[in-house]
Amino acid sequence: MLFNSIEFFVFLPLVFFLYWILQKQKLSLQNGLLLVASYYFYACWDWRFLFLLMFSTGLDYLAGLMMQKAKKEANRKFWFWLTISINIGFLGVFKYYNFFVDSFANLIGNFGFQVHYTTLNIILPVGISFYTFHGLSYVIDIYKRRIKPEHNFVEYALFVSYFPLLVAGPIERATHLLPQIKKKRNFDYHKAIQGVKQIIWGLFKKVVVADNCAFFVNQIFDNSANYSAPELWLGSILFAFQIYGDFSGYSDIALGTSKLFGIDLLRNFNFPYFSKDIADFWRRWHISLSTWFRDYLYIPLGGSRGSKWQSVKNTFIIFLVSGFWHGANWTFIIWGLIHAILFMPLLLSDSNRSSLQQVGYKLVDIFKISSTFAFVCIAWIFFRADSLKDAWIYFTGMIDFSDLSYDLFIKNSKYSLLTGICFLSIFWLLQIEWKNVKNNNYEIQLNKIQLITLICMIFFMGAFKNQLSFIYFQF
To answer: Has residue 290 got a pLDDT over 70?
Structure first.
């Protein structure tokens, strides 16, 4: 069930009204309704993978209780490593098995050996990377004695499978979401209205900004050898806004939907394209994933403690793992490597936190923001390309200005109209987000005229004909 589908906009009001009808009843009934709704929401993708979600939930729940009951450290370690191994094992089989087999066969083939191997003909369960990380953080926190295990299975299961965040995040922590699930919730009119506004804003980002940009992005990336350098640069810039509109749009709809039920989710984006350097970008982009890797991988590896070499090593590990988390393809690994390389000058000069000490924006910051955005756009090429070969062809074409043309955008009126829609949408997006940056406001501020304008743009400019899934569903 897509957030931008008719089915969802029938499903959401129904769950909303049933949920608040139960407000005067026991909290367990509200949570039970949300859990059933969440399982139904997930089953709409493929009901068979619902059993995988339930198994993972049950395993982590049991492991948490057994670690608490264990009197010997060896027993705690057994349950900890059992659930970690099984969860990562599921992720490895469904997401990475074919990649490792293909890569190994190609490597051996380079030495003249022929390997006969079998790949798995299975589809990737939607959201497996997200709900697996929910469970892993919960188990790790219990093992490290940061939290105590949850004894109410329904409440824990709802934490893992809460439908607004189930398939593409944000990646929640038990310390943030579980207390809200366990607490009695009363209807808050202001929060509900803010939730509706955030849903509309997220839908605008998805169907107007992202999906219209996708029309040009797909054409340019699928035929990059046929386009000039300016068109290739424009393609990478449009993809930057496509993936931002797509993913942050999903997050806005998720946060807005959750507010309708009186629950606040973690903020996942903080105007990343206004970043002054790459370190600043990663503090603003996919925040829940960045902080997850920081807390559960970077710091346990030693973080920035120790020698500069150790900091460099740990930083490369984090970026490469982050790239690999996004997909089983060398393009994602190179994408992570590029960001690691861009991060190195900041790390070596101890200036990776300099942007945190600056308040407001100065004239020189325009250059910093523009150059950071340009580097991010170059890295996005590897994220979007189907293969390293395609990415290299695209990149080399971007720096070849021998043949300048804009044929794609002047062929006919259809392309001209779509171009206008894209740039009008991006301008509107930047205008509102820049206002929020200056006000440091974490709520979407929309007056009545802006709200009506957004709704009109969604209906008249939204790309509904070829309904596109969200990009991060594949991760």
So the answer is: yes
Looking at the structure, tell me whether residues 372 and 390 fall in a common domain. Answer: yes
DSSP-based three-state secondary structure for 151: coil
Residues 161 and 254 in one domain: no
Inter-CA distances, 125 with 42, 119, 138, 342, 455, Å: 10, 17, 21, 33, 33
**Rama region for 72: left / alpha / beta (φ>0; ψ in -120 to 50; rest):** beta
Q: How do residues 82-116 score in pLDDT, each as one tens digit?
A: 999 999 998 888 887 777 677 666 667 666 666 66
Residue where one domain finishes, among candidates 170, 187, 204: 187
The count of residues in the chain is: 475
Give the integer Cα–Cα distance in Å for 59 and 431.
Answer: 47
DSSP 8-state assignment for residue 7: H
Catalytic site residue from 134, 286, 326, 339: 326
Active site residue 326: yes
Percent of the chain beyond pLDDT 70?
84
Residue 269 included in any domain: yes
The closest of 170, 197, 236, 191 to 436, measured between CA atoms, is 197
- State which residues form the domain around 163: 6-187
CA angle 222, 402, 232 (to 5 degrees): 30
- Please tell me the distance from the alpha carbon of residue 349 to that of residue 101, in angstroms, as a whole number: 40
Angle formed by the axes of helices 50-69 and 128-143, to 10°?
Answer: 0
Contact 372, 280 (CB under 8 A): yes
CA distances from 354 to 15, 263, 351 (A): 46, 34, 5
pLDDT value for 448: 81
Higher pLDDT, 357 or 24: 24
pLDDT score of 450: 78
- Cα–Cα dist 249/244, whole Å: 7
Q: Select from 147, 164, 187 the last residue of a domain.
A: 187
Q: In a 3-state reduction of DSSP, which class is residue 223?
A: coil
* Cα separations in angstroms, 197 against 194, 252, 262: 5, 9, 15
Instruction: Tell me which long-range contacts 452-455 makes (C-beta under 8 A, separation of at least 24).
Output: 453/428, 454/200, 454/201, 454/204, 455/200
Q: Structurally, how many domains does the chain consist of?
A: 2
Regarding pTM above 0.85, the answer is yes
Does position 410 have pLDDT exceeding 60, yes or no?
A: no
